[in-house]
Specification:
Elements: E1 4-8, H1 15-22, E2 40-49, H2 51-55, E3 65-67, E4 70-79, H3 94-101, E5 106-112, H4 132-151, H5 154-162, H6 168-176, H7 183-192, H8 205-219, E6 222-227, H9 234-237, H10 240-245, E7 250-252, H11 255-266, E8 270-271, E9 280-281, H12 289-306, H13 311-321, E10 324-330, E11 348-351, H14 356-363, H15 365-369, E12 371-376, E13 382-383, E14 394-399
Parallel strand pairs: 1-4, 1-5, 5-6, 6-7, 10-14
Antiparallel strand pairs: 2-4, 3-4, 8-9, 10-11, 12-13, 12-14
Helix pairs in contact: 1-11, 4-8, 6-7, 7-8
Length: 401
């Protein structure tokens, strides 16, 4: 299964704008709750140094793109329906939201830092709603949803563990496997919370909620995108410091600015690369006064003030939280090509700690099943199946398939 990042939050905070700015897809953008009903799926790109510069070759990417020696590696994004209070009880589009979230490996929580949307996602005056409320509310909704799944048939689960001798982490792991929760996540939670793994029937609801919260944090790491930062009062922007103190990672973000810049770049009106702190105007004569003013506003109030629009930073940080590296498989380690002659064609995300055989399976099941050895294109040395891969490795897989 490919890695997937969920873009989450209450209605009307700019999730779909963020999604459009971050992907090549197009989601409907409108100023009212529940615009996004079906989950939108698209592809975001993570920037990495492309080996083409190091090897002094002109690459011909297939599953990714290279801009001036920077490789943009694809990762799937899912923009889900806006969440409202008590979604875990089925209110609003709650069940739909939570169901779409199941396979997300990490979450980008879009928060309206300007305080101009209330708890339900309805527009209100700038600065009249505390954005920190949204962080607590979203975590609570996901926690209660996951806890509901854990508690379903809890007596049977506890009995399986206590009477039949099955490890409680194994039984719960099976129960939560569809949410991307692993047995080791549960094991870590039980150990850290010092819960009695031999007597799960004695666990209280409070302990189960703490267990759920711990498991959610490690199975679906989340960063906060403080969106609409160009419209936020200064005292609201400083609220991010409260989140940083609680070990959240917060990115100042203006998805609307990123979308405007990416659209202008597509039309060759400006030169701009996602994540940059500035842009160059290419065809000033094709821009009217209103467009020029809008671009200057973005430059002064977003790029110069915050260092970027924050959208690309959110994507990069989400991948960092997932502890992923990028590896480049080739079929000819001398020319760095695949069988069609494309140079450095594919870039694949792998979990840090993955080995050469894991990469073989990532490329194709047959390659993994018939793995013989691998070759490091930099050193031309033969490496074994259990050789741990490094970020940026260029690897040839040799098999008898």
């Amino acid at each position: 299964m490919s890695m997937q990042i969920g873009i989450v939050g209450k209605p009307n905070v700019g999730k779909s704008t963020f999604f459009n700015a971050a992907t090549d897809a197009h989601a409907e953008i409108a100023n009212y709750p529940f615009t996004t009903i079906d989950a939108n799926r698209g592809v975001m790109y993570v920037s990495k140094p492309c080996p083409c510069k190091e090897f002094n070759v002109k690459c011909t990417p297939h599953n990714s793109k290279c801009i001036n020696g920077t490789r943009f590696v694809p990762i799937e994004a899912i923009d889900v329906a806006g969440l409202v209070p008590d979604a875990f009880k089925g209110r609003g589009l709650g069940n739909k939201f939570l169901d779409d979230l199941r396979q997300a490996h990490a979450l980008i929580h879009i928060v309206d830092s300007s305080g101009s949307t209330d708890a339900e996602g309805n527009p209100c005056n700038v600065g009249s709603y505390d954005p920190l409320n949204d962080v607590d509310f979203l975590e609570k909704e996901i926690n209660y949803w996951m806890m509901g799944i854990i508690k379903k048939g809890w007596e049977t689960v506890a009995r399986q563990s206590e009477v039949e001798g099955k490890k409680i982490e194994s039984v719960l792991g099976e129960k939560l496997t569809g949410l991307g929760v692993r047995e080791d996540h549960i094991c870590n939670a039980i150990k850290n919370l010092q819960m009695d793994s031999k007597k799960p029937s004695s666990w209280t609801d409070d302990e189960l909620l703490k267990l759920t919260d711990f498991v959610r944090k490690i199975s679906k790491p989340m960063l906060i995108a403080f969106n609409k930062c160009d419209k936020a009062p200064e005292n609201f922007l400083s609220k991010s410091e409260n989140l940083n103190k609680k070990d959240y990672f917060v990115v100042m973000c203006s998805a609307e600015s990123e979308l405007a810049l990416s659209n202008a770049a597509k039309k060759n009106l400006i030169e701009y690369k996602p994540g940059n702190n500035d842009f160059n105007i290419l065809n000033e004569s094709e821009l009217n006064e209103k467009q020029l003013k809008a671009l200057e506003f973005i430059r002064s109030n977003v790029l110069k003030k915050f260092g970027s629009t924050g959208v690309q930073d959110c994507i990069e940080k989400a991948v960092e939280m997932l502890d992923l590296i990028v590896v480049y498989p080739v079929e000819d380690e001398t020319h760095l090509t695949d069988k069609e002659g494309r140079i450095l064609p594919d870039a694949h995300f792998m979990k840090r700690g993955s080995n050469a055989k894991d990469l073989a399976y990532k490329v194709h099941t047959d390659l993994g099943d018939h793995f013989i050895r691998a070759i490091d294109a930099r050193t031309h040395r033969v490496i074994g199946a259990d050789h741990e891969l490094k970020d940026g490795d260029v690897i040839r897989i040799v098999s008898d398939a």
